[in-house]
Design brief:
By secondary structure, the protein is α+β, with helices and mostly antiparallel strands. The chain is built from six helices and 18 strands. The chain starts with a strand and ends with a strand.
Length: about 300
């Protein structure tokens, strides 16, 4: 199952308006909505429940955190199974051109912690960096970086946590993982960077959707492919990282008490750091089983 957080930029076709919730009828849906991605189609969860007769009052349909994190995707697996069986009401489908895929987490409530696998490999005592979840952007985002001649890209795997964790062991950490997504971080290298640290972007990208851990039996074999107009680069596999993803989540829980809905990024993937790019160069990052995430680095205003 692939769950997305979607902002609808325009109403669906007039023929479908009666089947959609009332806030779809305006010129713009101001609040992100939970959606399920299936075979390149986007289905609004609330409209899907109504069309399939599975509607249950679970509160505000725009509350992605409650529906996906707090309730751990309650009812969504059944909806996805019905889509897989061919029950696909057109009234619940959001036209792809009218949907903006946001980072699949509640950016206002989540914490973001990045476990740097390079520091793990070196045996460093501190391997985590606390980030700002409000800066997480989604599909086809413009990533603001400080003016630079060179931009480097780092590709990691991110997990969204479904349970609270504090100083958890690897087994508890593995059980708390709700799903996976691609995490991409753009880093600016100032022209006069001799002796200076590189500068991470104002934003990072997460997405394109949250993929349930139950649908990724071979995630350890997955590799990232980074495609630009100049060619394609392929990273090492997930299981080549110096620590497993559950081990990394366990480390993060010792640095910061994790709450349901938090995001833990683990990486970068082997040979997927310091990939040289230019400003305004669109990049497509694909990871087996997780889909493709696109983004472009631009100078911060």
């Amino acid at each position: 199952m692939r769950v997305a957080r979607v902002l609808v930029s325009a109403p669906p076709p007039a023929a479908n308006l009666e089947a959609f919730p009332s806030d779809f009828a305006g010129e713009e849906s101001a609040l992100p909505r939970a959606a399920i991605l299936r075979d390149d189609a986007i289905y609004d969860v609330e409209a899907l429940e109504a069309a399939l007769g599975a509607s249950i009052d679970r509160g505000d349909p725009s509350d992605f955190h409650a529906r996906v994190a707090t309730l751990r995707c309650a009812g969504l697996y059944d909806l996805d199974a019905r889509l897989l069986r061919g029950e696909r009401p057109s009234s619940a489908r959001i036209p792809n051109a009218q949907a903006m895929l946001l980072a699949p987490c509640d950016t206002d409530r989540a914490s973001l912690i990045h476990v740097d696998t390079r520091l793990v490999e070196r045996g460093a005592s501190a391997v985590c960096r606390i980030g700002q979840a409000r800066s997480l952007l989604g599909q086809d985002a413009l990533i603001g970086v400080r003016a630079a001649e060179d931009v480097e890209l780092e590709v990691s795997i991110a997990v969204v946590i479904g349970d609270d964790l504090a100083s958890a062991d690897s087994r508890a950490a593995a059980a708390a993982i709700m799903g996976y997504a691609i995490f991409a971080d753009w880093i600016a290298t100032p022209p006069d960077s001799a002796g200076l640290a590189t500068v991470r972007g104002v934003s990072a990208a997460l997405g394109p959707a949250l993929v349930s851990r139950y649908t990724l039996p071979k995630l350890g074999e997955a590799r990232a492919s980074v495609r630009t107009g100049e060619g394609t680069f392929v990273s090492g596999a997930v299981n080549e990282m110096p620590c497993s993803i559950p081990d990394a989540v366990s480390m993060a829980s010792r640095e910061l008490e994790l709450r349901s809905g938090d995001v833990v990024a683990v990486g970068p993937l082997p040979r997927a750091s310091s990939l040289k790019l230019k400003l305004h160069q669109r990049v497509e990052i694909a990871i087996d089983g997780l889909g493709a995430l696109c983004g472009t680095a631009v100078a911060r205003r």
